[in-house]
Amino acid sequence: MAAVSTRNIVKKFGELAAVNGISLDVPNGEFMVLLGPSGCGKTTFLRIICGLEQQTSGDLLIGGDIVNDVPPRARGVAMMFQSYGLYPHFSVRHNIAFPLRTQRVPGAEINKKVAWAAQLLGIDHLLDRRPRQLSGGERQRVALARALVREPTALLLDEPLSNLDAKLRAFARQEIKQFQQRVGVTTIYVTHDQVEAMGMGDRIAVIDHGQVRQVGTPSEIYDNPADRFVAAFVGAPPMNIVARNGGYLGFRPENFLPKDMIKDAAFTEFKFRVDRSEYLGSERIVYGALEGFDPKQVITAKLPPAHVADEWIRPGEWHLFAVRNSALRHFDDDGKRRSRL
Amino acid sequence: MVAIADSVPKPTARFRFILDRRDVFGSLMVAPAILYVLLLVGVPLLMAVYYSLSAYTIYNPSWRFVGLSNFIDIVNNPVFRQTLYNTFIFTFGSQILGLVLGKFGALLLLRPFPGRKLVRALIILPWAVPIALATVAWEWMFDSLYSVINWTLIALGIVTRSNAPNWLGTPHLAMLCVIVVNAWRFFPFAIVIFLAGITAIPQDVLDAATIDGAGFWRRNYQIIMPMILPIVAVGLIFGFVFTFTDLSIVFLMTMGGPVGATSVLGFAGFQTGINSGDVSHGAAISLFMLPVLLVVVVAMLRFIRRREI
Amino acid sequence: MPRAVLTKMLRETPFYGAVAFFLVLAAFPFYWMVITSFKTNPDLYNVTHVPFWFNDPPTLEHFRYLFDKTLFTTWLLNSLIIGLCVTGITLVTAVPAGYSLARMTGRQGEALGIGIFLTYLVPPTLLFLPLSRVVAGLGLKNSMWSLVVIYPTFTIPFCTWLLMGFFKALPVEIEEAAIVDGCSLFGAFVKMAIPLSLPGILTVVIFTFTLTLQEFVYALTFISASDQKPITLGVATDLIRGDIFYWGEIMAGALIASIPVAIAYNLFLDRFISGITGGAVK
Q1: B49-58, B264-273, C96-105: which range is least confident on average?
Q2: Tell me: the pLDDT tens digits for B95-143?
């Protein structure tokens, strides 16, 4: 187990820079999530770390050593692929044992470790099956067991949950997080799903166009986005961002409330024209426009349960809304977070 | 937690991992095949070009350069001009016949019916079986005395024994025979290619066309044909190249005869270069195939490139 | 017979007629081979006999003659040896090459792939003159080993192309997982790509073998000694004494040589097509 660091990694495919200078430090034992839209370069970056791609420039350090020219087999990292990459012609037992065999671990030792990993993930009873005889969730556990069995220097996961259905996904999220904590392995987890990122990451690196926009804990990312991209990418519905005074003003939909709900705090008032509202059971999402701002820009408000049932808000009406000043976020005209506040 | 494997060994030197570089590894893997082909196809091709420009015979293996005089010799020879003409007739005749048969055969085999698998297996035979052996069977069927075809024609009263056709002994009939045999060998391949193309068309495209009111022929020629064109073109190029350069059918059935009526380029090159030992003139005759092949290859390359866009 | 069935049958008549036409066209020469090879000579060479079936009882005399009095068994053995050696050479070169081309991305890999494929289109009749000099230079003139050396010139390009298609169809992730799990590139190739494409490799073995059986031009050019001929050449050219054709023996020999090829083609046709088109479609 080891820390993973990158120094200004660049990867170009022809003219196109898929990774455009990423410097990231993942301390030993941390669960780091790389979050970004598809095509932002996060998977390429992961493949550089495990050695499946060679960076165009920049340094990669694992455990303090520069490993730029070290092939994957000698880096000691484990990777879990999106479709798991299980070996279809091997039994589950053989799949899990494979990383140990390539390192010429003695047979008795292999059996012990396979048993340990299988027991850890609760797949003892599957050891003699072939991958195609397993369900999606079982395959995922086998892939995880195979990745963990040799105690990798780092565990890399490339959208591992995208092949599971929604119900299974919530369960698998929790499972992966638990195992990571129990084994304590440095983990880098790539996803485009912010729920996974927020729920699992010790820290999150938000990536766009091959660059890191912000690194921080989930709450830092959510509460104090470093720029407009992060603000708009994280959160559902995303943060409302309106232009004001040569800069931008941002506020999250759940902080944009009818004025009468905000008590004894400094706040800013808006006149809000309601265009449409969606009832979601536990909340109500209201779409509309602000008076004095771009009338075409859709502003969303997320109303708490108290407002869900009574439909006092109807399309076409104007209401007085407000945001606590502490919940307002200011951005410069270049999109960066303004230094004050 | 259980204590697990020792830490990974530290890399010692960069060259230790030279085989882990994809470019190095990939080149090493492909090198033997490329070398083999370069040495035994590329070099001989250049040798053929040089032979055609020299005075090389197996009796007098000189490398004396004589320029284009070999080519001038053969072009001035009316027998060669006949051969060139024959080659085109042979190629286009058998290709067109084979394609028509192939297209109709594919239409038949597209429809499910009892025993289709067996029928397909039998129809594939002419393409599968070694052509030299099948040609010998045809030669026997065209035999001057015991031809089963003539026997049938006589039995049906179409011809009499005295004026029964001498298939391989009459110039035009002999050409017809080699064309038919080559088309016969080619049409199962054409069927396979057509079928592969048609079954690759998504069913919803055909359904959509049917719903839009396209009838059988319109579906056939405005939807199916354009969609299978790429794969058919590749098949056609194969058929063309191998027919244009063929030697075995003519060699076994007619020996180019009677009086040169079925002599084609491949056969003439063989006769001159191998049997008579006049390597330089033989090479010059064979090389007449090259420009045609180049045109075909360039057309194919352009086609492949267009498909990728 | 119910009227509906009758009209249905009438309507289907042209269709089945057409099928029958194709069947006769394709298969009659082979029927002719079979019937000729089992007929007695007096039955064969009698124009008053109906030729389509046995007028005398069938006989094994032609087969007996073929095996006892001719070099047929030698040719069979020669073809087997040639086929095995060529298949060996082809596998050793084409499997790595096909893999390399399938996994080599970008313009370079693509150009190499097309280049190799195009060499398959260079016809024997263009190369036989220089190659016969090469064969003579190697001291292999009139020896079946010349074919072992020359046949890979078309089996390698053909099989490389086929294998490229098969390897491209494999999910990359399996090899990548193996590489991350500690395999070298070569290890991933041997432990993952080869076992997973065994069906494709088997197809290639079968087709290489049939290609060597089908070849005629090079064999004709390089070999004139009867005991060195492969079966195709031997049957087609060596069973003629002067002007007399031994049709019964020739057809018997052709039949024996054709049957395995015909079976192999039919068993592997679908995989063969998917290989060809798989190489073309990325």
Answers
A1: B49-58
A2: 999 999 998 898 888 888 888 888 888 888 898 888 888 998 898 888 8
The Cα angle at residue C112 between residues C106 and C113, in degrees rounded to 5:
90
Question: A278 exposed, middle or buried (CB, 10 Å; 0-12, 13-18, 19+)?
Answer: exposed
Which strands form A4-13's sheet, in the order they lie side by side? A16-26, A4-13, A57-62, A65-66
**Which chains would you list as touching B if contact means 3+ CB atom pairs under 8 Å?**
A, C
pLDDT in tens, B181-235: 999 999 998 888 888 888 777 778 878 888 887 777 777 777 777 777 777 777 7
Interface check A52 vs C, CB under 8 A: yes
Give the start-end residues of each E strand in chain C: 240-241, 244-245
Cβ atoms of B214 and B226 within 8 Å: the answer is: no
As for the ipTM of the complex, it is: 0.84
In a mutational test of the B interface, the residue from A111, A151, A186 whose CB has the highest number of chain B CBs within 10 Å is A151
Give CA separation, A171 vs A137, A176, A180, B61, B192, in Å: 10, 9, 14, 82, 50
The HSE-up count of residue A189 (CA atoms within 13 Å, CB side) is 29
Q: Is B9 near chain A, with CB under 8 Å?
A: yes
Stretch B164-189: mean pLDDT, rounded?
89
Sheet holding A240-244, edge to edge: A240-244, A247-251, A329-331
pLDDT at position B12 over 60: no
Contacts of B101 in chain C (CB under 8 A): 22, 25
- What single DSSP character describes residue B61? -
Residue C216 · residue C232 · CB < 8 Å: yes
Asked if A181 and A29 touch (Cβ cutoff 8 Å), the reply is no
Query: Which helix (H) or strand (E) segment is A22 a member of?
Result: strand A16-26
% of chain A beyond a pLDDT of 90 = 38
Nearest by CB to B11, which of A72, A74, A103?
Answer: A74
Q: Do C123 and B289 touch (CB under 8 A)?
A: yes
Residue A341 lies in a domain: no
Whether the pTM exceeds 0.90: the reply is no
Task: Identify the structural domains of chain B with CATH numbers, from first to last.
Answer: 69-132+174-308 (1.10.3720.10)
Cis before residue B258, ω within 30 degrees of 0?
A: yes
Which CATH number do you get for residue A29?
Answer: 3.40.50.300
Tally of domains in chain A: 2
Does B17 contact A69 at a Cβ distance shorter than 8 Å?
yes
How far is CA C230 from its chain centroid?
13
Enumerate the domain spans of chain C: 3-59, 63-280
Res A148: pLDDT = 87
Cβ atoms of A148 and B1 within 8 Å: the answer is no
- Report CA B52 to chain centroid distance, whole Å: 24
Mean residue pLDDT of chain C comes to 85
Is C181–A78 a contact, with Cβ atoms under 8 angstroms apart?
yes
CA distance B299 to B106: 26
Whether C250 sits inside 8 A of B134 (CB atoms) is no
Helix (H) or strand (E) holding C198: helix C198-214
Q: Which pair of tokens denotes residue B75?
A: 């072009």
CATH superfamily, region C63-280: MetI-like (1.10.3720.10)
DSSP letter at A18 equals E
Note whether residue A338 is domain-resident. Answer: no
- Most confident option among A78-82, B38-42, C91-95: C91-95
User: For the segment A264-273, what is each residue's pLDDT rounded down to a tens digit?
Assistant: 778 888 999 8
Position with higher pLDDT, A308 vs A101: A101
Give the ranges where chain B is alpha helix by DSSP (H): 22-37, 43-52, 69-75, 78-110, 116-128, 131-141, 148-155, 171-199, 203-211, 216-218, 225-244, 248-253, 265-270, 279-287, 289-308
- Write down the pLDDT at residue B214: 74
Say whether pLDDT at B72 is over 50.
Answer: yes
